[in-house]
């Protein structure tokens, strides 16, 4: 599905924000300088010229729903000694579903800390289930055999 520009805003002076709609959800991109904006336009035009399909949009709502219903996830989440990081991961996942941008590396570190604090680490089969959930929902990361997140 193509991105439809909803609004372009030039505020504060010298910054450009583009709000667009894709798959029914509003997203935004902020440019600090005109050079950043020109680079963005050049990248998009190159993708169009080369016939590169746009990257699929992550389905955070679907991902969150599947993970919150997953028995292995709930076991890890309830028995980790890193409850604070586990709670932060959940809060960030919900924020991402609402369209709030966030650094995936930090998301991965928080999740990996949650796994590290677990009394019973996930099995390879459980990690494969999480990998399938991530893949199905177009997440910008995957889970390795140990259940740790690896950012794409």
UniProtKB/TrEMBL annotation:
This is Uncharacterized protein.
